Automatic annotation (TrEMBL):
<dbReference type="Pfam" id="PF01663">
    <property type="entry name" value="Phosphodiest"/>
</dbReference>
<dbReference type="InterPro" id="IPR002591">
    <property type="entry name" value="Phosphodiest/P_Trfase"/>
</dbReference>
<dbReference type="InterPro" id="IPR017850">
    <property type="entry name" value="Alkaline_phosphatase_core_sf"/>
</dbReference>
<protein>
    <submittedName>
        <fullName>Alkaline phosphatase family protein</fullName>
    </submittedName>
</protein>
<dbReference type="GO" id="GO:0016787">
    <property type="term" value="F:hydrolase activity"/>
</dbReference>
């Protein structure tokens, strides 16, 4: 039998940041919203989530973002959670909890009850979101009136029912986001909170990559949107801007497809996560998980960091080392997690839609470009 990968990863790859909770650390994204809900100051607050706008990307494109550049002195860099992906980050933001506690462990998370990956954005008719993630969100723990401003399709979605419980909902169109925020501020009153999720940059990045004119145009337009908000929102409104993750560009030449490695593919019963943070549950059978971990470690080499389940739990990647894992989360934890290094990706594309293979911009791993996000606090 192949010996299991032990709990220590030595050396930790230099091109990857340390695990978010390593050595007692706590990723700053968890505390971006919490103080606005638990101990708010008198007055109105607006939290804007810039999907996909990592701190490194923002620093590299200052010329395109005059509004954010002007506010650099009020902007900090904070860590997001791992995997650095929207669903996991949004639930951590809205609960203040580490992924290992809330149980949303990636874009696709293993659903052990049904034996398949569950999409954490759209869910499944057989899965009740409130049962999938029963921990109370910040919106349920506050007396503050709060409104989620988002496209109409987000109303009642799986992610909204997981992350935004306790929030009211107000739909917006693509061209009236500032007016929708103004309406929401009027609705919540003089001491309310409004949340706006802006996903333009993320969509452009996935389709065209961050080194593309469409991505740069999207970033400039989002900066313009923020500038308009700062001019048009009521005086005294506090504005908070952050992001869920950053992004890197990949290519077919930097992609490993497990379909081309059937001896490893057959060992994976469930393929969850995403191409920068691939989460695999092994087939049943003694030694299968260890064989899968070792096989992937040998296949990927310096192209990825491969963690066994034991290493994953010991590394403080998903939560503080040694924390109690809720029973409902325990079987969602993958037997093997593969974190891409550089701009490498790995997936089993035979189990993915064609759109997954076509993505240029990707995220989920621990590179600086993916894991650092901005946190801006200012007032109009």
């Amino acid at each position: 039998m192949t010996a299991p990968l032990g709990p220590k990863i030595a050396p930790w790859p230099e091109d990857l940041l340390s695990a978010p909770f390593a050595d007692g650390a706590r990723p700053g994204l968890l505390d971006a919203l919490e103080p606005l809900m638990s101990a708010p100051e008198p007055g109105r607050d607006v939290l804007v989530l810039l999907d996909g706008v990592g701190a490194d990307l923002l620093a590299e494109h200052r010329a395109l973002t005059p509004t954010l550049r002007r506010l650099e002195g009020e902007t900090a860099r904070v860590r997001t959670v791992a995997p650095s992906t929207t669903a996991t980050a949004m639930v951590s933001l809205h609960t203040g909890l580490p992924p290992l506690q809330h149980g949303v462990l990636g874009y696709l998370t293993h659903d052990p009850e049904h034996g398949q990956p569950l999409n954490q954005l759209i869910g499944d008719p057989d899965v009740v979101p409130e049962q999938w993630m029963p921990e109370p969100g910040l919106g349920e723990r506050t007396r503050r009136r709060a409104v989620q401003v988002a496209p109409g399709k987000h109303a009642g979605s799986h992610l909204s029912r997981v992350a935004y419980r306790g929030w009211e909902f107000l739909a917006h169109g693509r061209g009236d986001r500032v007016e929708a925020v103004r309406t929401a501020l009027h609705r919540v009153g003089p001491d309310g909170l409004v949340h706006l999720h802006v996903d333009d940059v993320d969509h452009a990045g996935h389709r065209f990559g961050v080194d593309s004119d469409p991505w740069r145009t999207a970033l400039a337009e989002v900066d313009s949107l923020l500038g308009t908000m700062l001019r048009r929102l009521p005086a005294g409104t506090r504005i908070h801007v952050t992001a869920d993750h950053g992004m890197v560009d990949t290519s077919p030449e930097l992609t490993v497809d497990l379909t081309e490695h059937p001896s490893l593919q057959r060992l994976a019963a469930v393929v969850a996560g995403e191409a920068r943070a691939l989460a695999l549950t092994a087939v049943s059978g003694q030694g299968a998980a260890e064989e899968l971990a070792h096989g992937l470690d040998e296949l990927m080499g310096e192209r990825a960091l491969v963690l066994s389940r034991q290493q994953l739990l010991g590394s403080a990647l998903l939560g503080p080392a040694g924390m109690a894992v809720p029973a409902r989360v325990r079987d969602r934890i993958p037997d093997v997690l593969v974190l891409g290094r550089g701009c490498w990706t790995v997936d089993d594309f035979s189990r993915r839609p064609e759109s997954a293979r076509q993505m240029v911009g990707v995220h989920g791993s621990l590179t600086s470009a993916e894991a650092w996000v901005p946190l801006l606090r200012t007032q109009v």
